[in-house]
């Protein structure tokens, strides 16, 4: 990311690098190192970073055809565009129905999960007659909104998803170092009070990032749950619509020159996945998520806590030493991916104040 | 003056069927059937129970159906239509199930067929059937409603009636001499929730307990059951050209199955923010509010009338 940074930020980053290399020391040197670390953090928060303007944004729904809030948010935005034209939103917004065939059939996908088709390998391999529909469509979307990794790529993709898990509103991004995305997350956390708003980072290099929003320069997914697939709930739709409107609002304010104050953003970093207990021969599930874990996304899971209750009544417990935070608990689409839930670590990300770079 | 309630004598129930996976993505029933099949009968049960996975192909693909909704294939017309290799899979399967558990309307049919279902609607546990005077089904409902101090205690139990003559009755449960769908929600399709599985397991167990007690000559006292009789369905507001829905069930109505809906109450909230209200003249009880599988059937919710049905005491005619 190219930006003009204040001298404080450059020094701050240098301090952090130095800190991590002194971690292995002990005693007084460590004490000094920790003091420097917090000095740097404070400096980052006080620093003002100038970032390039965000000219174009895309709102994508129906990447999974049965996750209906996004389908209807895009439908509603298209209706507003037909009615009001350019005046519909204060900034230019492109709306996209990502997987129209899957939407028509109200299925997650036709041949292949489209939201796994945006890694460099898939986007750069040639298309043939036998390519799955979703791979063809991924190439189309990469041409429309990308190309991924190039300067022509759209500035921000906001990809809309639903989950059967009780995750409230979760903003998902693949890196911890994108300050635009993190500022938008911070803004949503402040403005949306009726639903928990959390940030999830996958910590994946961009070429390996396989989801649609990785095509843009600053993309993220808006995941809202719980909602059954194939169902649209008014309350969930409203939350998602509000999140999109606030994202547009932030970009408009940022583009108009407003300074967004830095600070700490609490985030969860993906660590690993846990599968259901399965029959070794048939591979069918032998247990469901335990009632004491069901719907408790982002709680702290400690050793000895129940994980699964078998259909014959036995409890399976969490045996690991390290307490972690589960999420995507009992997501319907993950049964076939052999995931009962993901586990993550909570962390604090420090972001500087930002303002749009003036030409 | 003491008046004895009218008593009904019924033949004992010798054959019972428990069916799951009639819709392949309604998973509590699928796992309950798998669990029951694992523990096969050791021959000591007082009643013969046949456990069936109704739609194995749909279960394997975790879809509601492969070609056509199996639970609409049990009308007399469909059951007696000629089948060929090109017939829809579910039509062939419905005739197989009719041969196994029926034939529907004959003396060979199973005495009771319990068909297990899940719904995305907040219905609690419902027994859904075609008769409002089947004393067996009504007594089983009363028995489930009376249980306390169990896991199921917080799950409401209701009796829902579709007033359709047997020939036109289209669902699997109509194959047995007595039958009902045991519907439990809310649960997303393709998901199994532990508490929903437990509630269903307990519901089936209580049903089996009642049957065993009945067969051994227990007298079940009469009483009354509230019966919800389906009156009509309401569809979503749709775009006149594209037929795409333009509103979702209103937040005031969502999850409020079996709460009385009055004329003027909010029903839908459009995606552009307008409230649409119930325009009917009669206050009715909504159920199956926002069932995922019903969007394609043009049903946002169903409406029912409630009435109290008095049921006689019953005892089996056991040959002693």
TrEMBL record, chain A:
Stretches assigned to the AstE/AspA barrel-sandwich hybrid domain: 264-345
The UniProt record lists the keyword GTP-binding: no
Entry's EC annotation: 3.5.1.114
InterPro entries with a match to the protein in the record: AspA/AstE_fam (IPR050178), Aspartoacylase (IPR016708), AstE_AspA_cat (IPR055438), Aste_AspA_hybrid_dom (IPR007036)
Membrane topology of this protein: Peripheral membrane protein
Location of the protein in the cell: Apical cell membrane; Cytoplasm
Catalytic reaction(s) noted: an N-acyl-aromatic L-alpha-amino acid + H2O = an aromatic L-alpha-amino acid + a carboxylate; an N-acetyl-L-cysteine-S-conjugate + H2O = an S-substituted L-cysteine + acetate
A Pfam short name: AstE_AspA_cat
UniProt GO molecular function: aminoacylase activity; hydrolase activity, acting on ester bonds; metal ion binding
Domain Succinylglutamate desuccinylase/Aspartoacylase catalytic: 55-245
Needed cofactors: Zn(2+)
Domain of life: Eukaryota
Gene Ontology CC annotations of this record: apical plasma membrane; cytosol
Keywords: Cell membrane, Cytoplasm, Hydrolase, Membrane, Metal-binding, Zinc
Broad EC category: hydrolase
Family label: Belongs to the AspA/AstE family. Aspartoacylase subfamily.
Stored PANTHER family: ASPARTOACYLASE, N-ACYL-AROMATIC-L-AMINO ACID AMIDOHYDROLASE (CARBOXYLATE-FORMING)
UniProt-listed HAMAP family: Aspartoacylase
Identification of the protein by name: N-acyl-aromatic-L-amino acid amidohydrolase
Recorded name of the encoding gene: LOC109045324
UniProtKB/TrEMBL annotation, chain B:
Annotated compartments: Apical cell membrane; Cytoplasm
Keywords: Cell membrane, Cytoplasm, Hydrolase, Membrane, Metal-binding, Zinc
Residue numbers annotated as active site: 183 (proton donor/acceptor)
Primary location recorded for the protein, binned into one broad class: membrane
Pfam families listed in its UniProt record: AstE_AspA_cat (PF24827), AstE_AspA_hybrid (PF04952)
Cofactor note text: Binds 1 zinc ion per subunit.
Domain AstE/AspA barrel-sandwich hybrid: from-to ranges: 225-306
Any GO MF annotation of the entry: hydrolase activity, acting on ester bonds
Positions bound to Zn(2+): 23, 26, 117
Cellular component, GO annotation: apical plasma membrane; cytosol
Catalysed reactions, semicolon-separated: an N-acetyl-L-cysteine-S-conjugate + H2O = an S-substituted L-cysteine + acetate; an N-acyl-aromatic L-alpha-amino acid + H2O = an aromatic L-alpha-amino acid + a carboxylate
CDD domains to which the protein is assigned, alphabetical: M14_ASPA
EC number: 3.5.1.114
Membrane topology according to the record: Peripheral membrane protein
The protein's required cofactors: Zn(2+)
Residue ranges constituting the Succinylglutamate desuccinylase/Aspartoacylase catalytic domain according to the UniProt record: 14-210
Family of the protein in this entry: Belongs to the AspA/AstE family. Aspartoacylase subfamily.
Protein name: N-acyl-aromatic-L-amino acid amidohydrolase
Organism: Cyprinus carpio
């Amino acid at each position: 990311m190219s930006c003009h940074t204040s001298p404080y930020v450059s020094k701050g980053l240098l301090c952090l690098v130095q800190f991590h290399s002194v971690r292995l020391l002990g005693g007084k040197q460590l004490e000094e190192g920790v003091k420097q670390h917090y000095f740097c953090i404070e400096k980052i928060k006080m620093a003002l970073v100038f970032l390039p303007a965000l000219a174009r944004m895309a709102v994508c729904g129906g990447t999974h055809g049965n996750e209906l809030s996004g389908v209807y948010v895009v439908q509603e935005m298209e209706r507003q565009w037909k009615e009001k034209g350019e005046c519909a939103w204060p900034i230019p917004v492109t709306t996209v129905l990502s997987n129209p065939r899957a939407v028509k059939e109200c299925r997650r996908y036709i041949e292949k999960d489209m939201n796994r088709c945006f890694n460099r390998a898939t986007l750069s391999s040639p298309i043939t007659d036998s390519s799955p529909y979703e791979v063809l469509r991924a190439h189309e979307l990469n041409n429309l909104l990308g190309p991924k990794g190039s300067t022509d790529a759209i500035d921000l993709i906001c990809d809309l998803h639903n989950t059967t898990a009780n995750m409230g509103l979760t903003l998902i991004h693949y890196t911890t170092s994108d300050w635009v995305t993190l500022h938008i997350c911070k803004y949503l956390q402040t403005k949306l009070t009726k639903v928990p708003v959390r940030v999830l980072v996958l910590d994946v290099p961009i070429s390996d990032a396989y989801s649609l929003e990785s095509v843009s320069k600053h993309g993220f997914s808006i995941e809202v749950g719980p909602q059954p697939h194939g169902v649209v709930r008014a309350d969930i739709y409203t939350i998602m619509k509000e999140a999109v409107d606030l994202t547009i609002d932030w970009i408009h304010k940022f583009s108009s020159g407003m300074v967004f104050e830095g600070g700490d953003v609490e985030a969860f970093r993906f660590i690993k996945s846990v599968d259901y207990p399965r029959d070794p021969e048939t591979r069918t599930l032998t247990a469901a998520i335990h009632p004491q874990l069901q719907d408790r996304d982002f709680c702290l899971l400690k050793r000895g806590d129940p994980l699964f209750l078998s259909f014959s009544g036995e409890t399976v417990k969490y045996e690991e030493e390290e307490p972690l935070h589960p999420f995507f608990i009992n997501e319907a689409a993950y049964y076939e991916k052999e995931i009962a839930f993901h586990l993550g670590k909570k962390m604090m990300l420090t972001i500087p104040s930002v303002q749009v770079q003036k030409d | 003056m003491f008046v004895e309630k009218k008593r009904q004598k019924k033949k004992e129930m010798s054959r019972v069927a428990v069916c799951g996976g009639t819709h392949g993505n309604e998973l509590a029933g699928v796992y309950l059937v798998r669990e029951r099949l694992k523990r096969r009968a050791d021959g000591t049960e007082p009643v013969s129970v046949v456990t069936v996975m109704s739609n194995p192909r749909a279960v394997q693909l975790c879809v509601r159906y492969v070609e056509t909704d199996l639970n609409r294939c049990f009308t007399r017309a469909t059951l007696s239509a000629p089948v060929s290799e090109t017939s829809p899979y579910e039509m062939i399967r419905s005739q197989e199930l009719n041969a196994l558990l029926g034939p529907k309307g004959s003396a060979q049919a199973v005495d009771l067929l319990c068909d297990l279902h899940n719904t995305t609607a907040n219905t609690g546990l419902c027994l859904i059937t075609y008769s409002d005077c089947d004393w067996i089904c009504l007594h089983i409902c009363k028995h489930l409603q009376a249980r306390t101090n169990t896991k199921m205690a917080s799950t409401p139990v209701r009796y829902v009636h579709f007033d359709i003559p047997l020939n036109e009755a289209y669902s699997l449960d109509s194959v047995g001499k007595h039958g009902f769908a045991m519907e439990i929600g809310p649960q997303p399709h393709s998901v199994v929730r532990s508490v929903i599985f437990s509630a269903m397991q307990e519901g089936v167990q209580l049903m089996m307990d009642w049957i065993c007690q009945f067969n051994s000559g227990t007298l079940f006292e009469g009483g009354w059951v509230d019966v919800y009789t389906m009156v009509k369905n309401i569809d979503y507001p749709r775009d006149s050209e594209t037929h795409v829905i333009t509103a979702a069930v209103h937040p005031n109505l969502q999850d409020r199955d079996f709460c009385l809906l009055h004329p003027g109450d909010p029903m839908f909230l459009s995606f552009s923010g307008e409230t649409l209200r119930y325009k009917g003249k009669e206050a009715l009880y909504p159920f199956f509010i926002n069932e995922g599988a019903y969007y394609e059937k043009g049903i946002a919710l169903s409406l029912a009338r409630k009435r109290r049905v008095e049921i006689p005491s019953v005892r089996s005619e056991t040959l002693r």
